[in-house]
Amino acid sequence: MNFKKAILFSLLVVAGTTAFAQSGNLRKAKAGLQKFQEFKGSDIASEQLAQLGKKDLESAKEAIDAAITHDKTKEDPETWTIYALVYANLATAEKSAEAAKTAEEGIQKATELDTDGKNKENITAAGQILGEYNFDQGADAFNSQDFKTAYTSFERALHYRPGDTTLLFYSGLAASNTKDHVNAIEKFTQLVPEKEYSNHKAVMTELSRLYLLTADTANALAYSDKAAAEYPEDNDLALQNIEMNLITGNEEKIIKDIENQIAKDASNKTLHYYLGAAYSASNNTEKAVEAYKKAVELDPDYLEANKNLSATIINQVGNQLNALNENNTLSNSDYKAKVDELKEQIKEALPYLEKVISLDPNDIDALRSLRGYYSFLEDEEKSAETQAKIDALQ
After folding, report:
1. d(CA 360, CA 341)
2. pLDDT 10s digits, 317-334
3. Looking at the structure, do residues 130 and 150 belong to the same domain, yes or no?
4. By C-alpha distance, which of 276, 283, 281 is closest to 308?
5. Domain region containing 20
6. Residue 82 near residue 29, CB atoms below 8 Å
7. Interacting residues of 360 by C-beta distance below 8 A, sequence separation 6+
8. Distance between CA 246 and CA 282 in Å, rounded?
C-alpha cells in the first residue's frame, strides 16, 4: 500500500529567483532540503533516512523559519513553497501532526502568493508528501481496526491525491467498516471506470452488497449484473449474481443465467444448488428437487443441498396433505388411500434428512423435521427417540 513518491526537488536548483537575489536563509534552507531529498530518493531504510537526513532537514527548518519573517523573503512565494516542503517532510519523517498542519498552512500561503505559477510543481510536491503522511496515518489506523480515524486520514490524503485508486479503495473499505454506506458507495463508484485497477472486481462486488444494505435493490442488481458481465469467467461473481437475484425476487431471469453457467461448468455442485433454490422460489417443486438431487449426486456430503432437498420433499407432501384436509368431497376410504400414498412419497426425504443430521447432529431444525416425519408415519417410538435428542440439545 505504498505510494509512488513524486520527486520534484531537482527543480529547486533552478526554480524561483536567482541565487544572488535570495537571502542567505532561503539558500540555506534549499540546500538542506536538497541534501535530505538525496537521502530520501535512495533505497535506504526509513530508520536510516531519519538518522542520516535529520541534520539536513533540521538545518533547512531553522533557515526557512527565519526566511518567512525576513523582509526580503517573507512575501516571496518560493519561501513559502520551501517552508511547505520542509514541514511536509518533517511530518512524514517524524510522524508529526503539528508539522503536517504547518505544511498545510505553508501550501495555502504559497498558493496565494504564486500568482505566476512558477512554484506550482513544488507546491504540488509538498501536497503529495502530505498525502503520503496522511495515507501512512490512515494505514496505521486501518491496521489497528480504527476505521473511523482511518477514513478521516484517507480523506485528507485524497485532498492532495485526488483520484488515487489505492486511497479511494481503502477509504471506501474504511467507510464500509464503520457502516457509513453513503461514503463507501461514493468512493467505490469513483473506481468503477478504473478497470485496470487490481481491486476492480472487489469494488464491483462491494458496491452490489452496499446498495443491498441501503435497500437500493435496483442498483444492487445492476452492479451485480455488471460485475458478472465484465468477468464472465469468474464463477464466484456468477454465483454472487445468482444469489443477488434470488434475494431480490428475480428468480425467472436468474434461472436462465444459472442454466447457462451449468452448461459451462456442469460439475459445479453450487450451481445446481442455486438452480434448486431458484426453482423452489418460483414454486416449481419438481425442478427444484431435480436440481438439488444433482447437487447431492455431485457431493453426497453437501449439507445445504441435503437440507433443502429433504425440506422441499416434506413441504411438497405437507401442501398436498393440506389440500386433502380441505377437500370435503372425499370419502373416508379415499382420504385414507391418498394419505397412504403421501406416506410413501415422503419416505424419499428420509435419507437426505438423515444425512443432514449425520453431518450436523446439533441441527435442531433438522431433528424437528425428522420428528415430524416419524409422527406423520405414526412411528411413535422413533418420534419419541428423536424428541429426546431435541430435548438434550435445549
Report:
1. 30
2. 999 999 999 988 989 999
3. no
4. 276
5. 1-143
6. yes
7. 303, 366
8. 10
Q: What is the DSSP-derived secondary structure letter of residue 6?
A: -
Our CA angle for 302, 284, 357, nearest 5°, is: 25
Q: What is the pLDDT of residues 102-143, one digit of tens each?
A: 999 999 999 999 999 999 999 999 999 999 999 999 999 999
CA 232 to chain centroid: 20
Whether the Cβ atoms of residue 292 and residue 271 lie closer than 8 Å to each other: no
* CB distance 78 to 70 below 8 Å: no
Q: What is the dihedral of CA 106, 107, 113, 114, to 10 degrees?
A: 140
Decide: helix, strand or coil at residue 56. helix
Considering the domain architecture, whether residues 136 and 161 belong to the same structural domain is answered as: no
Cell numbers linked to 67: 526566511
DSSP states along 181-197: HHHHHHHHHHHTT-TTS
Q: Are residues 113 and 126 in the same domain?
A: yes
Residue 289 has pLDDT above 60, yes or no: yes
CA angle 161, 167, 170 (to 5 degrees): 165
The reply to whether 231 falls in a domain is yes
Nearest-10 Cα torsion for 159, 161, 167, 169 = 90
Q: Is residue 186 part of a domain?
A: yes
Is 6 or 192 the better-scoring residue by pLDDT? 192
What is the grid cell recorded at 371? 420428528
In whole angstroms, what is the distance from residue 314 CA to residue 388 CA? 22
Are residues 18 and 127 both part of a single domain? yes
Q: Is the pTM of this model over 0.90?
A: no
Count of residues making up the chain: 394
CATH of the domain at 41: 1.25.40
Report the Cα–Cα distance between both ends of the chain, in Å, rounded.
49
Closest by CA to 244, choosing from 269, 219, 279, 262, is 219
d(CA 179, CA 213): 9
Distance from C-alpha of 201 to C-alpha of 203, rounded to nearest angstrom: 5
CA torsion sign for 338, 340, 346, 347 is: negative
H/E stretch holding 305? helix 303-326
Residues 62 and 80 in one domain: yes
> Hey, what's the cell of 310?
429433504
CB contact at 8 A, 153 and 141: yes
